[in-house]
Amino acid sequence: MKRMKAVSVMLTVIMISCGVLAGCSSGNSSDKDANNAPASGNAGSGASAASTVKLDIIETGNNLPSPDKDFIKKEIDKAIHSDLNLTVYASGDDYKNQLNVRLASGNLPDLFQVPDRASLKQFVEQGLLLDLTPYMDKLQPVKDFIGDESMKKTTMDGKAYAIPKAPNIPYNTYWIRKDWLDKLGLQPPATTDEFLNVVKAFAEQDPDGNGKKDTTGLTGSKLSTFAPIFGAFGVADPNTFYVKDGKLVNSLYDPAMKDALGFINKIIATGGVDPEIMANSGLQHQEKAIKGQAGIIWIDWPNLSKDQFTEQIKKVNPNADWMQLAPPKGPGGQYDGPFDAGGTSGMYAIPKALENNKEKLQKVFDLLNYVSGKDGSTLVQFGIQGTHYNLEGEKVVPTELMGKEAGFTWLYQFTGRPEMSYLQTKFAPQSKYIEFANSQPRIQILNGFLSNPDGYNPADAARFIEEEFVNFIYGKSPLDGYDAFLKKLESTMNFKTYMDASIKQLEELGYGK
Amino acid sequence: MVRSKNDRIANAVVFVILFGCGLVAVFPLLYVLSVSLTPFSEVLKNGGFILVPRSITFDAYRKLLMESNIPSAFGVTVLVTVIGTILNIVITALMAYPLSRKQLPGRNLFLMMVVFTLLFSGGIIPTYLVVKSLGLLDSIWAMILPNLVWSFNVLIMKSFYESLPEELFESARIDGAKEFRILLQIVAPLSVPVTLTVGLFYMVGHWNEFFQAIMYVTDRTLFPLQVVVREILIQTQSPLENVDNMTPSETLQMASVIMASLPIIIVYPFLQKHFTKGMLLGSVKG
């Protein structure tokens, strides 16, 4: 791992120096690439290359089957006369390495996932991405599919440089052990004070009845563990932008933030919170919940209610009964954490070099339009009709094979999917959880629209904010120091520049006016 | 040999310490093995920690063999390892042998060039460009040719060859042997230990092939074992993108680890005795 890190650091350095070079050379090499691609691929497909166009696509993901078993690839190839070569990378770091090397060396994929908004900005500045604005009329089906609003997420200086996936819906809520509540004779907490009491009771009153004090009341991953508590005070997670009383605010500057921190400090002081929340990474908090070590968890519904996990939960304890909990009411209202209006579960860009290869570019458009259209979208959502699903009227009814074979089709959802109907179909047993999570009130945050100004290092700032917040909620520094913390943030992290730039960008989009 | 009481105590202490060290080394392996053989529900019941499985199932292995890309990846890795290691040894020996002969003109210059690559490398992007323009992308050769010769191994072999007595070469030459015959019939049979050592280095390197595969190969059918195993091991954490994904259970993950490392663990003991010998000869007299 250490080596990987060093490699990525090195890469970044090299990238900076090679970016200019690549920008110049990619234009010349694109024709050569077009000739190279079939030659370096397998010879069989090269022979029939006259009518089909080979498309190289890279993204993060996993469980993609080999091409001979990949029925989605076959169907798409048939529909748009292409030869898709999709490569997925399991880890984000590996993907970034691969992407950077290919961008720098001019061996460009024809369509690729942009890791995040910061990378989008960087690639745009290096002139690597094709400005899609003039082609928007050719992408009408895509636009209809993802909605006009969505394009804002990938627009920079008025130009669209990538296609975001269709909007997603919130998944996260608090989940609570109903059987534990019953055992202790408690009601599901409706207010923040009741919440605090339940957390305390879960930790102290041995809800699992094994005679040992080995349970915690609340677990989660990092500060998001407390998202609905922040929400109860009317603030969103640290360093998020939202509109409050008609004005744009950053949660750090929201006066209610101090109250929220004070209350979280009180919850932690009960001793009922998993002491490892800041160290929980990946799905460690989920494991704790499954193993019956925690009574309340802030998590998305798939990771606690998918069949695979309910089965595990039942095996550990047949009586375990997890239910979703509405956000507790507090002085600032009742919000189940934030939801990013600018967030997207992925965006895809086309390299600028493809500009000169009209045929290939058109094929990429065909692909995007196809997976956004009715037939294509159904294909990449559910698989093949008659095999993986049957149609009853308009309703898609999954067959058993869908669960077995069609688990990877999301890799081809380059423009996303109609989230609600998709989930309701694929996860019929979880339907009510999906509905519940989606219908909770959330604070709409706007961070997804922001690009960081130069001189502001988001990673450093985030780390600093997190460290200071941990000190506040664990009572290591008194809340009187909050204003001093803000001052220090401004003076050492260039936070003022970031604030000004962010407010300006959001106002341009019409927020807070 | 005189054995006092103190000696025996010292011995006992040493044994206990070494036993402890051994235990520490075996422990994680045992854990991985046990979890891979235990049904996942059992694992969960025990809070995720199992050293001796109480009930055994081969489900995870069956699943990996039937449903994942592991079998084909296994094939790729074996192919790369076999072809790669043979080529590595041949080319490395062909380079090391001349460099070990003192009468080679410009020997120091060539040595310098070898050592230079130990300290400096071209960097990722230039290397990528070279691989690309040689047309190696998306072929198993991309995992073999870029690292065909490791300078370090050349130096080990060179030192070993230098340690062979000069008289051997002289007598061979008197009998009319030319350099190639000397290398094949005199040097090669004598240098089995170093060849095996270097071969083992190369072999482990190929077996663990990961980075070059990730960089140069985009064709899934050519992914080697480690890449596929890593894919199984990384639990995707963002459910937003892929609610559909089945998170592989810990049992499955551990089984994939065992499958990826078992072959090399089996090979190791057989080569070990040569291994130490070859290393020593290389280092002491280098």
TrEMBL record, chain A:
Sorted UniProt keywords: Cell membrane, Lipoprotein, Membrane, Palmitate, Signal
InterPro entries referenced in this protein's UniProt entry, alphabetically: Bact_solute-bd_prot1 (IPR050490), SBP (IPR006059)
Signal peptide segment: 1-22
Pfam families from the UniProt entry: SBP_bac_1
Protein name: Extracellular solute-binding protein
UniProtKB/TrEMBL annotation, chain B:
TM spans (from-to): 12-33, 73-97, 109-128, 140-161, 182-204, 252-271
InterPro entries, per the entry: MetI-like (IPR000515), MetI-like_sf (IPR035906)
UniProt keyword Cytoplasm present: no
CDD domains, per the entry: TM_PBP2
Claim: Transmembrane helix is one of the keywords in the record: yes
One GO BP annotation of this record: transmembrane transport
Compartment(s) of residence: Cell membrane
Family that this chain belongs to: Belongs to the binding-protein-dependent transport system permease family.
Protein name: ABC transporter permease subunit
Organism (species): Paenibacillus sacheonensis
